[in-house]
Amino acid sequence: MSRRALGFVAVSGVAAACNFGSRIAFSLYAPYAVAVVLAFIVGLTTAFWLNRRFVFRSEGPLLRQFGLFFAINLVALLQTVVISLVMLHWLLPLMEWQWHAAEVAHAAGIIAPILTSYFGHKHVTFRAS
Q1: Would you say residue 29 has pLDDT above 90?
Q2: HSE-up (13 A, CA, CB side) for residue 55
Q3: What is the pTM of this model?
Q4: In this structure, what DSSP letter does residue 105 have?
Q5: Which of 14, 36, 79, 92 has the greatest number of beta carbons closer than 10 A?
Q6: pLDDT tens across 73-104, in order?
Q7: Are 18 and 42 within 8 A, CB to CB?
Q8: CB of 129 within 8 A of CB of 112?
Q9: Buried-exposed string 18-49: b where 16+ CB fall within 10 A, e elsewhere
Q10: Cα 74 to Cα 41, 69, 117, distances in angstroms
Q11: How is residue 54 annotated by DSSP?
């Protein structure tokens, strides 16, 4: 695994922790699916700044890169929401899993798009001009 890929995974871990923690807080005031989306925005913003600064060390046009980062992460958002909901409402109940089911489902949803996001950001968002 390359140094850049390891950095991406580390940054993804920090962003995932922000995503996960904020979802728990948002869930105090919003329905689960809404909390997942809001938390995704927190994680997305964290991931953008950390990747831009530490992983890809890019000085390209900020708004263009954020727009591309956001567009690529819309696919990741879809993956996150679908996997979180499928896990919460179908797979975990099928397995009779009850221990922190919402948290387990959300964690699976957060992990799912790491590979697709890495290649999208490497080859599109932060590609060398």
Answers
A1: yes
A2: 26
A3: 0.74
A4: H
A5: 36
A6: 899 889 989 999 999 999 999 999 999 999 99
A7: yes
A8: no
A9: bbbebbeebbeeeebeebbebbbebbbebbbe
A10: 10, 9, 10
A11: I
